[in-house]
Amino acid sequence: MTESVRSSSQSHQKSSASGETTVLVVEDNVSNFVLIARMLGYLGIHCEWKTSGYEVVEYADTLPHLDLILMDIRLPYEDGYGALRKIRSAEHLKSIPIVAVTAEASDEQMRKARDAGFDGFLGKPLDPDRFPEQIRRILSGDRVWELA
Fold first, then answer.
1. Would you say the pTM of this structure is higher than 0.70?
2. What is the C-alpha separation between 59 and 22, in angstroms, rounded?
């Protein structure tokens, strides 16, 4: 097996799902979080969790590394759109891809998420057979917009 050597400038690239990869899941439903965490764990991805969009920027600041944010839209205290605006206004977090993950999966909601500035859209219920490949694509820089 060949060992991959990456320079410090390459360490922030999202080219592969590895143990170095960290995903922040903003999800208020414990069952949904557990499912997402298990699927990310299967990929060897470290997962962090917040239950609302409130203080998500402050929490993200505590993480040593962040590659992706999976953001539920319907959240208590502050919805995913409000959290998205806060994250996008934080200079050091602007380049982190943020993907909407919502049970409100419709063409209208997908368009609203795209217009708001999300980098992708995954409709719930998440498909355990498709989710790993969707995450691999997102982490490699693809924009994934899928209703189900």
1. yes
2. 13
Q: How confident is the model at residue 51 (pLDDT cuts 50, 70, 90)?
A: very high
CA separation for the pair 109, 121 (Å, rounded): 9
- CATH entry, 22-146, from 3.40.50.2300, 3.40.640.10, 3.50.50.60, 2.40.40.20: 3.40.50.2300
The C-alpha torsion from 32 through 82 and 136 to 18, rounded to 10°, is: -90
Q: Any bridge partners for residue 145, and if so which? A: 121
Task: Find all residues with CB under 8 Å of 60, minimum gap 6, and list them.
Answer: 24, 66, 69, 87, 90, 93, 96
Domain positions in the chain: 22-146
46 bridge partner residues: 22
Q: Where are the alpha helices (DSSP H) in 1-145?
A: 30-42, 56-61, 80-89, 107-116, 131-139
Rg (CA), the chain: 15
Q: What is the C-alpha separation between 119 and 137, in angstroms, rounded?
A: 12
Q: Angle 80-10-83 (CA atoms, 0-180°, nearest 5)?
A: 10
